[in-house]
UniProtKB/TrEMBL annotation, chain A:
Domain MHD residue range list: 176-417
Protein name: AP-3 complex subunit mu-2
Family per similarity comment: Belongs to the adaptor complexes medium subunit family.
Chain segments annotated as transmembrane: none
From TrEMBL, chain B:
Subcellular location: Cytoplasmic vesicle, Clathrin-coated vesicle membrane; Golgi apparatus
Protein name from the UniProt record: AP-3 complex subunit beta
Listed Low complexity bias regions: 658-676
Domain called AP-3 complex subunit beta C-terminal: residue spans: 783-930
Main location (coarse class): membrane
The organism's place on the tree of life at top rank: Eukaryota
Organism expressing this protein natively: Betta splendens (Siamese fighting fish)
Entries under Gene3D superfamilies matching the protein: Leucine-rich Repeat Variant
Gene assigned in the entry: LOC114857189
Biased composition (Acidic residues): 230-240, 677-691, 734-758
InterPro entries from the UniProt entry: AP3_beta, AP3B1/2_C, AP3B_C, AP_beta, ARM-like, ARM-type_fold, Clathrin/coatomer_adapt-like_N, Clathrin_app_Ig-like_sf
Recorded GO CC terms: AP-3 adaptor complex; clathrin-coated vesicle membrane; Golgi apparatus
Keywords: Cytoplasmic vesicle, Golgi apparatus, Membrane, Phosphoprotein, Protein transport, Transport
Length: 418, 1077
């Protein structure tokens, strides 16, 4: 299974290494650097690189490459999934997963990695269990530890490890018992030149923040569960009940977790909440191009479209732009040719627009491709699929929790081809 | 700092050292100083020392030995975490000298109480194996032991160890196969991946190919094509054809029926498609792809498409696998076509893979949308991607004839693209396309000839030249001109172009020597002095061939044939074409090369190995599993049927078997034997089928006299019946009419009667039949029987908790009595055999009267229920007192309180009259005495029954020592303690009876202790012993502690400590009752 792990930063330095079996020389990473050089973009580095004696499986997160060294056959997804889990854990522990954070907490990182893998096989990856084994560093705890000499390593086997609900620790106590659920839907769409939708689908997740005392047993039901086409659950959800009654029944983990992610069946037509009018032209011969972009809301059920951000990769021939936004600010990076326009909120009365000219490289022929426009936006208090939570009930505990549900729609990979 | 007394200083020092290790700096000189601290009390220091030790022990073996004793001590620590971590570190130290110590430690830990420690032991196995492979045999023993472990925690790790140490020992899995399948869903996700992959391999060796019949169909017996019959599909079939040819004959006789264990695997893995872990989803997907029948593979598509939303690395791997799948099973992903559309923000490698998938999915119906998409892609800025798109268009064009022209035109337009790479790529693709039908496209060739002036990419130039040379007849005017131009620039060309120029010259010389003779000579001369020997050789070779000299051999005659032979069109195929021989989702598949340690996915066996090896050797299980076995066998010879002359509404098991050939059905219907006989004979091997039949025939003849009376009438009745039936149900008529032709008097009963309605029809008929001639006899019978039945009722022991079972009342009452009369009349022949387990109290589930002869009793076997440790095993005794065979006994419509679960007993296919059978089911009562209600179904009837557990059965015994007992008891005081005074019955004052009665009332084990002296400290009366019993509730595992303190004169005090107060109170009552009665 996983032999060793190397962390490599953006500038190509190995800043952490950990071996679970015998030591693998860090020179094995040279193969990785080779592949990295060959790839033009950082994300184009192949995830699996065979070398004469080892295989390197890497993931790129937060501009850090996590390179796992393996020696024999193992499902690649197994390793990839595990590496992502490692990153998630780091993020959970340190708030951010950056080189600096890892270097600052190198001992905790080492202890974590030691617990997560034994002989290359995952041992404890549930964040709740890990947190009982190794307490996350906080300023207060560091201070207390230095004074009292106590440790942040748990002495007892976490109870969750042995129980049937490994994701929840026992003896949880809160004074305010609360359970919040965020229904977040993302629209992935490709809109073609003429404004018609080529593909659009809705992917949603329900993220939960549950702070409840004891061992609560929750059930969550939907008004329209039939909308959900394909779902994947947190291990805590009882699959049988979902199959039979379309009810989510679960003993929640403590804290933040992703309860469910779903896909809304593609039969339902997806309402596209914004439209884009665009006119981007390059004229043959002249070194000028016209750029004209207008955004407008569409099918938003009266909710405001917020945090709109437009970005577009302009052709290589564009030297600079001279644009005039009706609202918000825009930037153009002449090196990467990336145009971003931070629009903010769309006001239906006064549609935001970005107009102006682009200067092209003199003498070069007109670029034959038109840029695609990526749009990000948020709509609060609305789930675009129409999914609605019916009710949330709690069994097994006596107190009355405070419950809250929030809906939000976001743009996922929303692209407009021009 | 390490020598300091203060823990905080030590900790600081260790932290620095670990930071050094992390950065890859050498810290090995500090080894002696560090190793001293291995016994440090501070747990964090200890952990960091462990980290250090594991890292450097290999380099400093001698010094590392100093630490061993600390670990050995740690292995005996009461804290399971410390035990586990000691074992972990001990096994991680790669020092050969300590191998025996490790071996010992692993063996010990493998039987540790704590599953966590056992899990660690499983992890340690591969470590030791890699250190010293000679320990393999011993390790396998440990693996075998751990495989039998029932906790989910251990399962994943031990299968992992199995895969690393002895993947070839598939025989170890047999016994644990069903358990693994059942536990699978509760195993942690990483373990799931490993187990699923292992089970895939296992299933490939143990079960038959579920698609065997389909491939037969496709083969042309019926001339039917698969739904998505396409080129690839057919190719694949071709391959299969050879393989299946031998098995074909065999398979035709035996229609494929899936092994129930195979089905179990598929059913239990399916929910895991919903896992959040991509690796698990992929593992299930590959399992379905490799093992499931074609019709069922589709379910994985949705889940795989979902993974495409994940991180790009996950997408990369998933798309690779999807690409392979789409070649074999295109239909599966067709509905998700749009999910593979490419976004400009995707990384290039993802784009290329998506393109691959799109190309594989293209067919006549969706090609237009796909091509439209491709058109947008061509404009992309990512040139590698554009090149890939052009190739994809080429492949679409070759695969789908209708769009070939459109594609070609599109590609020709691309020739005017400004980007040279695009042009070059399209030239190469066009070349391949033109080869298929050059006649029509001479204008394209002309167009391309013109391009030679502009295109600089050597590959493209070479392609154009080859094209012109190959089809020079179509462009007779241009070709010499091109050669002229090329000759001019010959010296400046790349090698690959030069070779093609020579080729072109040769071809032109052969077809049009008048115009090109000089040019060819010139080119060949140039080539003769080229720097590249390949070109020189080629020139020499060609000159000899084509230029007729006096020396020229026989070959020159054939020059034209050599050069201008018709070349077959190239096949543009996917690079994923032949990847499917690797197990999907594996590293080897991804790399398309065998990775170290890759286990080949075996081919399906031609005949299924004996399925009985998977039967678990728990006494109650043997019976039902032999039943399963029988079921399989029976289906293999489908037309085995039993025909008890007057068996009433017989639920013949043949309902599943398809009613194909009449001849067989005839022979089958001859086989009439009572269940007991068939059971015996079926113990024999399958191959003896024929002999068996003969045997049965004879047996049947022997039996005939017994059935005389009925069979006499039956021949007449049968015909009448048939006449009616064929009117009523046409669906049946096909198979029946065949049988009727054979006019086998008894065959009629053997036809399929699945639905109740049919059964009812029969019953009605029966009622009608019973009227005519034999009416008086029957009535007498009935009377008699009623009397008997009444007597029987009186005979019955008053059961402790009689279960009320409502009579199923969907038949009219008269009918019921009629039928009852019938069935009871026969019960004389088959006297009831009651076989309740001796020691266990058995309860009645279904009375023989209400059950129409079927009597069911159940008892709590107190054995651990192997598929699920949280369930109480309930052993059911079925007794068939009726004359008719009861068939397909199973459970339905389970109604439970929330939280409760039931694992149904395996369906009992056939319970012959007068026989008994045993089955075990598991019920998770959730530590409550709520009843589990369900329907017990035979093929014809349903009986509502319920099982209510006495509280004493909701626990399983645990072994505690006296001290542990007291310690636990101390923690369960107050509310959790219930005490009751009682006077012991005179008969039960000795130790033996008390223990017996308590253990009979509740499933507890006795805590070994002598007479307890601490109980009454001052003057310990030796004759007042204390009895302690301990157990845990089955579901929640909370402790149940029972203490009986005896005093003078039979006075005693009963104390129950239990976290669950309800259980405690109820238990007190039950034990009280048991002790005082």
């Amino acid at each position: 299974m996983i032999h060793s792990l190397f962390l490599i930063n953006a500038s190509g330095d190995i800043f952490l290494e950990k071996h679970w079996k015998s030591v693998v020389s860090r020179s094995v990473c040279d193969y990785f650097f080779e592949a990295q050089e060959r790839a033009t973009e950082p994300e184009n580095v192949p995830p699996v690189i065979p070398t004469p004696h080892h295989y390197l499986i890497s993931v790129l997160r937060h501009r850090i490459y996590f390179v796992a060294v393996i020696q024999s056959e193992v499902p690649p997804l197994f390793v990839i999934e595990f590496l992502h889990r490692v990153v998630d854990t780091f993020q959970d522990y340190f708030g951010v997963c950056t080189e600096a954070a890892i270097k600052d907490n190198v001992v905790v990182v080492y202890e974590l990695l030691e617990e997560m893998l034994d002989n290359g096989f995952p041992l404890a990856t549930e964040s709740n269990i890990l947190k009982e084994l190794i307490k996350p560093p906080t300023i207060l705890r560091t201070m207390v530890n230095t004074i009292t000499g106590s440790t942040n390593v748990g002495e007892q086997l976490p109870t969750g490890q042995l129980s049937v609900v490994p994701w929840r620790r026992t003896g949880v106590k809160y004074t305010n018992n609360e359970a919040y659920f965020d229904v977040v839907e993302e629209i992935d769409a490709i809109i073609d030149k003429s404004g018609s939708t080529i593909t659009a689908e809705i992917q949603g997740v329900i993220d939960a923040c549950v702070k409840l005392t004891g061992m609560p047993d929750l059930t969550l039901s939907f008004m329209n569960p039939r909308l959900l086409d394909d779902v994947s659950f947190h291990p805590c959800v009882r699959f049988k009940r979902w199959e039979a009654e379309r009810i989510l029944s679960f003993i929640p983990p403590d804290g933040n977790f992703r309860l469910l992610s779903y896909h809304v069946s593609s039969q339902n037509l997806v309402a596209i909440p914004v439209y884009v009018k665009h006119n981007i032209t390059f004229r043959e011969g002249s070194s000028q191009g016209r750029f004209d972009l207008t955004l407008g809301p569409k099918q938003t059920m009266g909710k405001a479209v917020e945090s709109v951000l437009v970005s577009s990769q302009l052709p290589r021939g564009v030297l600079n732009t001279n644009l005039n936004p009706s609202q918000g600010t825009y930037t153009f990076d002449p090196v990467t040719k990336l145009l971003t326009w931070d629009v903010g909120k769309i006001n239906p009365q006064k549609l935001p627009s970005l107009k102006g000219t682009m200067s092209l490289q003199a003498g070069a022929s007109k670029p034959d491709e038109n840029p695609t426009i990526n749009i990000q936006f948020k709509i609060q208090q609305m789930a675009i699929s129409g999914l609605k939570v019916n009710r949330l009930d709690m069994y097994g505990e006596k107190y009355k929790p405070f419950k809250g549900i929030k809906y939000m729609t976001k743009a996922g990979k929303f692209q407009v081809r021009t | 700092m390490l020598d300091s007394n203060k823990d905080s200083l030590k900790l600081e020092a260790m932290k620095r050292i670990v930071a050094m290790i992390a950065r890859g700096k050498n810290a090995s000189d500090l080894f002696p100083a560090v190793v001293k601290n291995v016994a440090c009390k501070n747990i964090e220091v200890k952990k960091l020392v462990y980290v250090y030790l594991v890292r450097y022990a290999e380099e400093q073996q001698d010094l590392a030995l100093l630490s061993i004793s600390t670990f050995q001590r740690g292995l005996k620590d009461p804290n399971q975490l410390i035990r586990a971590s000691a074992l972990r570190v001990l096994s991680s130290i790669r020092v050969t000298i300590i191998v025996p110590i490790m071996m010992l430690a692993i063996k010990e830990a493998a039987s540790d109480m704590s599953p966590y420690v056992r899990k660690t032991a499983a992890h340690a196995i591969p470590k030791l194996y890699s250190l010293d492979p000679e320990q393999k045999d011993q390790l396998i023993e440990v693996i075998e032991k751990l495989l039998a472990d029932k906790t989910t925690l251990v399962a994943g790790s031990v299968v992992m160890a199995f895969e690393e140490v002895c993947p070839e020992r598939i025989d170890l899995i047999h016994k644990n196969y069903r358990k693994l399948c059942n536990l699978l869903i509760d195993v942690e996700e990483w373990g799931q991946v490993v187990i699923i992959n292992m089970l895939t391999r296992y299933a490939r060796t143990q079960f038959l190919n579920p698609n065997i019949n389909e491939s037969l169909l496709e083969e042309g017996g019926s001339g039917e094509k698969t739904f998505y019959g396409s080129d690839d599909e057919e190719d694949e079939d071709e391959e299969e054809k050879e393989k299946k040819a031998e098995t074909a004959a065999m398979a035709k006789r035996k229609p494929y029926v899936m092994d129930p264990d195979h089905r179990l695997l598929l059913r239990n893995t399916k929910p895991l498609l919903q896992s959040r872990n991509a690796a698990v989803v992929m593992a299930v997907a590959q399992l379905y792809f490799h093992l499931a029948p074609k019709a069922e593979v589709g379910v994985i598509a949705k889940a795989l498409v979902r993974l495409l939303r994940s991180h790009s690395e996950v997408q990369y791997v998933v798309l690779q696998n999807v690409a392979t799948m789409t070649i074999k099973r295109r239909g599966m992903f067709e509905p998700y076509l749009k999910s593979f559309y490419i976004r400009s923000t995707d990384p290039t490698q993802i784009k290329v893979l998506k393109l691959e998938v799109l190309t594989n999915l293209a067919n006549e119906t969706n090609i237009s949308t796909i091509l439209r998409e491709f058109q947008t892609y061509i404009k992309s800025m990512d040139k590698d991607f554009v090149a890939a798109t052009i190739q994809a268009i080429g492949r679409c064009a070759t695969n789908i004839g209708e769009v070939r022209d459109t594609c070609l035109n599109g590609l020709v337009q691309l020739l005017s693209n400004r980007d040279e790479l695009v042009v070059a790529e399209s030239v190469v693709v066009i070349k391949k396309l033109l080869q298929m039908q050059p006649e029509k496209h001479s204008d394209i060739i002309k167009h391309m000839a013109k391009l030679t002036d502009n295109i600089q990419v050597p590959m493209a130039r070479a392609s154009i030249l080859w094209l012109i040379g190959e089809y020079c007849e179509h462009v007779p005017k241009i070709a010499p001109d091109v050669l002229r131009k090329m000759a001019k620039s010959f010296t400046n060309e790349e090698d690959i172009v030069k070779l093609q120029i020579i080729n072109l010259a040769a071809k032109l010389y052969l077809t049009n020597s008048k115009q090109t003779k000089l040019l060819t000579q010139y080119v060949l001369n140039l080539a003769k002095y080229d720097q590249n020997y390949d070109i020189r050789d080629r020139a020499r070779f060609i000159r000899q061939l084509i230029v007729p000299t006096e020396k020229s051999g026989a070959l020159s005659k054939y020059a034209k044939k050599l050069f201008l032979a018709l070349k077959p069109a190239p096949v543009l195929e996917s690079p994923f074409k032949d990847r499917d021989h690797f197990q999907l989702g594996s590293l080897s598949h991804l790399l398309n090369a065998k990775a170290g340690g890759y286990q080949e996915l075996p081919d399906w066996p031609e005949a299924a190995p004996d399925p009985s090896v998977r039967n678990v050797e728990v006494p109650e299980w043997t019976k039902c599993s032999s039943r399963e076995k029988r079921k399989e066998k029976k289906v293999e010879k489908p037309f085995y049927s039993d025909s008890e002359g007057e068996s009433g509404p017989t639920e013949s098991a043949d309902s599943e078997s398809d009613s194909g050939s009449g001849s067989e059905s005839a022979s089958g219907s001859e086989v009439s034997a009572s269940g007991s006989e068939s059971e015996e004979s079926e113990e024999g091997s399958e191959s003896e089928e024929e002999e068996q039949k003969d045997k049965k025939k004879t047996k049947k003849e022997l039996k005939k006299p017994v059935q005389e009376s009925e069979s006499e009438q039956s021949s007449e009745e049968e015909e009448r019946k048939h006449a009616r039936k064929s009117k009523i149900s046409k669906s049946e008529s096909e198979s029946e009419s065949d049988e009727e032709d054979e006019s086998e008097s008894e065959s009629s009963e053997s036809e399929s009667e699945d639905s109740e309605s049919e059964a009812e029809v029969k019953k009605k008929k029966k009622a009608a039949e019973s009227k005519p001639p034999c009416k008086p006899v029957k009535k007498e019978n009935k009377k008699e029987k009623k009397e008997i039945s009444l007597l029987d009722l009186d005979d019955f022991d008053p059961t402790p908790s009689p279960q009320v079972t409502p009579v199923n009342s969907f038949l009219s009452s008269s009918l019921v009595t009629d039928l009852e009369g019938l069935s009871l009349s026969d019960s004389v022949l088959a006297p009831a055999t009651m076989a309740p387990s001796s020691a266990l109290k058995s309860y009645e589930l279904l009375h023989r009267i209400t059950g129409e002869g079927l009597q069911v009793e159940f008892c709590f076997s107190r054995q651990p229920f192997s598929p699920d440790a949280n369930m109480v095993a309930v052993q059911m005794h079925f007794t068939n007192n009726a004359s008719a065979d009861a068939k397909s006994l199973h459970m339905e419509d389970v109604k439970l309180q929330s939280g409760m679960r039931v694992r149904e007993f395996p369906e009992i296919e056939l319970l012959p009259a007068g026989e008994t059978a045993t089955a075990v089911m598991g019920i998770d009562f959730c530590d409550s005495t709520q009843a589990a209600n369900f329907q017990l179904c035979t093929q014809t009837r349903k009986f509502f029954v319920s099982i209510q557990p006495p509280v004493g059965e909701l626990m399983r015994p645990v072994f505690l020592t006296e001290n542990e007992f007291k310690k636990e008891q101390g923690q369960l005081m107050g509310m959790n303690e219930i005490t009751e005074k009682l006077t012991l019955d005179a008969t039960c004052r000795n130790e033996h009876t008390i223990v017996q009665r308590v253990t009979a009332a509740a499933n507890l084990s006795r805590v070994p202790c002598g007479s307890d002296k601490e109980c009454s400290p001052p003057v310990p009366p030796p004759d007042h012993p204390v009895y302690r019993f301990a157990g845990r509730t089955v579901t929640s595992g909370s402790l149940v502690l029972v203490t009986v303190v005896t005093r003078e004169e039979g006075a005693a005090q009963l104390t129950v400590n239990c976290e669950k107060m309800v259980i405690g109170t109820m238990l007190v009552k039950d034990i009280l009752l048991a002790l005082t009665q």
